[in-house]
């Protein structure tokens, strides 16, 4: 007992000493609200009355910085700075000047890259469910090593389960997260877009009735570098743009009716104000022509309807309402990023369509758990589900400037690489037209004697214009190492060869014709005119057709086979 008391005294002395001479920041700095030309940085100072300003520079030494205005730490000692006038698509470093002295403490320094202005390819990371009290914190180092443009934290950033009207209780949670060695280092290196779930809002399965609701909301606004929040004082929903991708983040906790309530049209996971905003955001994104809309939807969308289920299955009436809205307004390019379930999962729309009579097959991507114990929730998921920890999602967006973007989702596990992969293209055009992609399949052939074969039927009496592609070398841009080097595409009507191709842009004419067909179809553009990808634009009359892809040089590899019925 005495030994313990002595140790405790020694620890107290050390911590007092470090408060006097150490960093002026509690936890660490973090950045967010990044746009092509601006950033917001937040920090918590050790005392009130400190005069602080932010320096942002392209140089790690912070030479020739852009300065924010000076802020004095006050209630909660939080400070927040926004700097404008930056250059798009540029790496920046930042730091704090406190009382006229530029600090060099590690936890006062960070970096970020401004977003591309318009067209641009990039990588984002997303994940949920990290408990700083658990082991296996190297997942945060792994995400940092990916150097994503943005890290979307989908909630359960911690498991403190705070439910209180005391702001200091909520502030302490942010201090813990930002002060954690691995996690804090990630937030200093990569800007964040953060949406809470239950454990980091007000406790397990918490909702709008939680005692701590208003305090959680207000400390979020104080401590998090967030995008503009739609509602003053209300739910913390936000929307922003990265390149040509619109991101809409919904708060499914602080305005939610209890899941135990019986189903009715007024039972809501978003609350009526947030839902009206969400619908308007979807319409605006459609009208602005964004090729991809990411809905940061922290909780499982796919789950059986059941009162009491802490998923969208517990708000099944509202789920149908949202699905019908998406279908009726022809918003076909919404992809869900989800967490809560402690696993990786992909659904390509097979199980996610809750519109009455169908018509809203949404792509659903789950990226979790950071460090929490593995579990499954909801489903089924067409592309599989992998419960586990040390896991996160990567979404790569390839934008060559056409009407669509190509995307690759990687469900990552530390030390094991990509455990789940899903490649898809997303187009604004499909918002205004019926679904155009009839067939899109990624398959491998093992050698000269192997082939990928698929079929389709033209049922209309009049001829249809059809675009058929066998993507090989361009897949390398998605990081597919064994992309087929020379896919050979052949189309048959019965036994009769209709057309064949093994290098899509044989001449300038073919290149112009096909590129315009890619754009009309909403298909991603091919990276080089000299690439050995295959593509055919055909006028086909009524009948059954077979498409065959072989490896022209006999080497094994993967090919993406696509068939589009052109409008
Ligand atoms: Fe969780």
Describe this structure in words.
The chain has nine helices and 30 strands. The chain is of the alpha+beta class and 567 residues long. It folds into two domains: 313 residues, 4-Layer Sandwich (Purple Acid Phosphatase, chain A, domain 2); 127 residues, Jelly Rolls (Sandwich). Helix 2 runs parallel beside helix 4 and helix 3 packs across helix 5. The termini are far apart. Fe (ii) ion (FE2) binds next to loops. Fe (ii) ion binds next to loops.
Top keywords for this entry?
32% strand, 567 residues, seven-stranded mixed sheet, binds fe (ii) ion, Jelly Rolls, Purple Acid Phosphatase, chain A, domain 2, alpha+beta
Q: What's the CATH architecture of the largest domain?
A: 4-Layer Sandwich
Bound chemical compounds: fe (ii) ion
**Count of DSSP-assigned helices:** 9
CATH-defined topology of the largest domain: Purple Acid Phosphatase, chain A, domain 2
* Biggest sheet statistics: 7 strands, mixed
Mean pLDDT: 91
- Helicity, as a percent range: 10-25%
Q: Report the β-strand fraction as a percent range.
A: 25-35%
Look at the structure and name the CATH superfamily of the largest domain.
Alkaline phosphatase D (PhoD)
Number of domains: 2
What is the strand arrangement across the widest sheet?
Answer: 13-14-15-16-18-17-19
Report the C-alpha radius of gyration, rounded.
Answer: 26 Å
Task: Tell the overall outline.
Answer: globular
Give a count of the beta strands, DSSP E runs of length 2 or more.
30
Structural class based on helices, strands and sheet pairing: alpha+beta
So what's the CATH class of the largest domain? Alpha Beta
Distance between the termini: 80 Å
Given as residue ranges, the uncertain stretches (5+ residues, pLDDT < 50) are: 1-20, 430-436
């Amino acid at each position: 007992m005495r030994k313990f008391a002595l140790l405790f005294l020694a620890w107290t002395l050390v911590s007092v000493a470090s408060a006097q001479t150490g960093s002026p920041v509690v936890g660490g700095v973090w950045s967010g609200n990044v746009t092509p030309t601006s950033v917001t940085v937040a920090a918590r100072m050790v005392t009130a009355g400190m005069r602080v300003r932010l320096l942002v520079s392209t140089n790690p030494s912070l030479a020739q910085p852009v300065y924010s205005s000076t802020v004095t730490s006050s209630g909660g000692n939080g400070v927040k700075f926004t700097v404008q006038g930056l250059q798009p698509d540029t790496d920046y470093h930042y730091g704090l000047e406190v009382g006229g002295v530029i600090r060099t403490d590690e936890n006062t320094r960070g970096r970020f890259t401004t977003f591309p202005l318009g067209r641009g390819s990039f990588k984002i990371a997303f994940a949920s469910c990290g408990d700083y009290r658990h082991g296996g914190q190297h997942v945060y180092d792994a995400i940092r090593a990916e150097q994503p443009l943005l890290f979307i934290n989908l909630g359960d950033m911690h498991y403190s389960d705070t439910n209180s009207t005391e702001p200091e209780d909520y502030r302490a949670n942010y201090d813990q997260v930002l002060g954690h060695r691995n996690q804090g280092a990630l937030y200093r290196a990569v800007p964040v877009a953060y949406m809470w779930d239950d454990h980091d809002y007000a406790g397990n399965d918490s909702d709008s009735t939680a005692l701590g609701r208003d305090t959680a909301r207000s400390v979020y606004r104080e401590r998090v570098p967030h995008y503009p929040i739609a509602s003053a004082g209300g739910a913390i929903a936000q929307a922003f743009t990265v390149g040509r991708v619109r991101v809409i983040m919904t708060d499914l906790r602080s305005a939610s009716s209890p899941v135990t309530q019986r189903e009715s049209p007024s039972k809501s996971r978003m609350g009526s104000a947030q839902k009206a905003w969400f619908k308007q955001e979807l319409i605006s994104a459609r009208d602005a022509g964004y090729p991809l809309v990411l809905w940061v939807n922290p909780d499982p969308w796919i789950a059986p309807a059941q009162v009491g289920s802490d998923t969208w299955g517990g708000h099944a009436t509202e789920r149908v309402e949202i699905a019908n809205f998406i279908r009726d307004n022809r918003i076909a390019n919404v992809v869900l990023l989800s967490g809560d379930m402690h696993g990786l999962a992909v659904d390509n729309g097979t199980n996610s369509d809750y519109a009455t009579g169908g018509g809203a097959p949404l792509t659903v991507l789950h990226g979790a758990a950071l460090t929490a114990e593995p579990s499954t929730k909801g489903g089924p998921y067409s592309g599989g589900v992998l419960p586990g920890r040390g896991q996160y999602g990567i979404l790569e967006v390839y934008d060559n400037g056409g009407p669509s973007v190509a995307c690759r989702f990687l469900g990552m596990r530390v030390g094991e690489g990509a455990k789940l992969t899903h490649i898809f293209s997303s187009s604004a055009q499909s918002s205004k037209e019926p679904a155009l992609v009839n067939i899109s399949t990624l398959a491998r052939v093992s050698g000269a004697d192997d082939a990928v074969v698929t079929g389709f039927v033209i049922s209309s009496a009049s001829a249809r214009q059809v675009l058929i592609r066998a993507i090989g070398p361009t897949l390398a841009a998605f990081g597919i190492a064994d992309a087929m080097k020379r896919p050979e595409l052949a189309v048959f009507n019965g036994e009769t060869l209709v057309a064949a191709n093994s290098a899509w842009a044989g001449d300038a004419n073919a290149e112009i014709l096909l590129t315009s067909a890619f754009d009309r179809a909403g298909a991603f553009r091919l990276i080089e005119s000299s690439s050995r990808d295959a593509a055919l634009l055909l006028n086909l009359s009524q009948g059954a057709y077979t498409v065959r892809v072989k490896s022209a040089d006999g080497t094994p590899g993967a090919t993406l086979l696509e068939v589009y019925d052109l409008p």
